[in-house]
Design a protein that fits this description.
The protein contains 15 helices and 17 strands. By secondary structure, the chain is α/β, with parallel strands linked by helices. The strands form three sheets. The protein has an eight-stranded mixed sheet with strand order 4-3-2-5-1-6-7-8, sandwiched between helices. A six-stranded mixed sheet has the order 12-13-17-14-15-16, sandwiched between helices. Strand 10 (236-241) and strand 11 form a beta hairpin.
């Protein structure tokens, strides 16, 4: 690939990254100060559905967005991280923020901040709030960046609803070593009197959420108690809550776990504004939702062209033990063909925990360096971990080199282990 001239927004984003010595420094004080200087755009937003959790946040938002747009509503979304370019994070009325508009927003926030310490996520979240405050919409689907209690998005003090997707162990250096500690941080998005849709949880996490909700008076709607979503016959799901039962097409996003994410999306939208949605909107949204980098098949691009005829190329950015367990369900359905994993992971991720559920479904694993960072697990370490789990494992010099090692009868390649790797794969595949 030929090197491209950096966009003007990339230059500003680089400057913003240098405003704080640490990439992550949880707390609300810097965000609140900056938003005050900007005239409090967080108080001028459309109705907000605030989403926290460990896994499934982006997919749940993707389903909500698709359903709401099918119903004719205008939708803003805020998600992170981006895969290929920053603009992906800020979607205004269904379209990524335009480059010129983003430049103005970033420079406005940079000027208001006046060189004071602020993290990259804090100042870019402020820029996003400026954008959303200035563009009318029916709803803003707002994803936390990390945790909840001290996440910059948590300055919204009166959302229309909140959602907590499944919680598992991840980001322990910031959120705590136990599931209870992590759940406490996620439950920090709960607000008095604001309903919260709770996705499937382990008992320890659910107990913490329930305790916090009781303490502040936040009504809960809990998966398996107040609402239910389950597959039926492979092509449908059944959703049921206090308003009745409906049959809908199976979710467009791959993996059995997406039924739970779809259910949370349905529950949240029905909780927020049930009258706005008909059965046809739910059906169109579930069958039409898209979320790049989450069990996504790559077809016809430059990476897929490196594989022998008949091989499929798949991509998933999951990177923690719960994500590995979810992927294992997909691998169980792929036993008709060989499966080769191409894997890279950040060094702060639990590689054995991620790989263990996958081991029985893999024919081979090819470990590579995580592109664009020195903070990845050494490929030799990943390969050794996989070998210890009984998987034939090798190391390759790059993603392209890994794909060129594939041979034999038609099978499937799964690029996995990191959202950073997913972004690199999407960029390379596009050429």
């Amino acid at each position: 690939m030929t090197a491209q001239t950096p966009r003007r927004t990339d230059v500003v984003l680089e400057r913003l990254t240098a405003l704080h010595p640490r990439l992550i420094d949880l707390g609300l004080e810097r965000t609140e100060r900056l938003l005050d200087d900007l005239g409090h755009p967080e108080r001028q937003l459309p109705p907000v559905i605030h989403v926290a959790g460990t896994n499934g946040k982006g997919s749940t938002i993707a389903f909500m967005r698709a359903i709401a747009e099918a119903a004719g509503l205008s939708v803003h979304t805020y998600t992170s991280p981006h895969l290929v370019r920053f603009n992906e994070r800020i979607v205004l009325n269904g379209a990524e923020v335009e480059e010129d508009a983003l430049l103005v927003l970033l420079e406005e926030c940079e000027a208001a901040n006046d060189g004071r310490p602020v993290t990259f996520f804090e100042i870019t979240t402020a820029a996003a709030f400026l954008a959303y405050a200035r563009a009318p919409a029916d709803v803003l689907l707002l994803e936390t960046g990390l945790g909840g209690r001290f996440d910059s998005t948590n300055v919204v003090d009166r959302p229309a609803a909140t959602v907590i997707t499944p919680i598992s162990v991840d980001h322990t250096q910031f959120l705590g070593d136990t599931i209870e500690q992590i759940a406490f941080e996620k439950a920090g998005i709960l607000k008095p009197g604001v309903p919260c849709i709770v996705g499937p949880q382990v008992a320890e996490a659910l107990r913490v959420i329930e305790d916090r909700a009781a303490e502040i008076g936040a009504p809960l709607s809990i998966a398996g108690i107040d609402w239910f979503a389950a597959p039926q016959g492979g092509r449908e799901i059944i959703y049921r809550d206090g308003d009745g039962e409906i049959a809908l097409p199976a979710p467009s996003l791959g993996g059995a776990h997406q039924v739970d994410n779809a259910g949370a999306a349905l529950a949240a939208l029905r909780c927020w504004n049930a009258a706005a949605f008909g059965l046809e909107d739910f059906a169109a949204g579930l069958s039409g939702a898209s979320w790049p980098g989450r069990l996504q098949r790559l077809r016809g691009g430059e990476l897929a062209a490196l594989l022998p005829d008949g091989w499929e190329l798949w991509l998933d950015g999951g990177h923690n033990p719960a994500a590995g367990a979810a992927l294992a369900g997909t691998l169980a359905d792929w036993r008709d063909r060989p499966v080769v994993a191409v894997c890279a992971m950040l060094e702060n991720k639990d590689a054995p925990g991620f790989l263990a559920p996958l081991a029985s479904g893999l024919t081979r694993l090819v470990a590579i360096d995580l592109p664009g960072t020195t903070a990845g697990h050494p490929p030799d370490s990943i390969a050794a971990t996989a070998a210890g789990l009984g998987v034939d494992s090798i190391v390759a010099a790059s993603l392209e080199a890994a794909l060129r090692t594939v041979s034999g009868p038609p099978g499937r390649v799964l690029i996995c282990g990191s959202l950073y790797l997913a972004g690199e794969a999407l960029a390379l595949d596009a050429g």
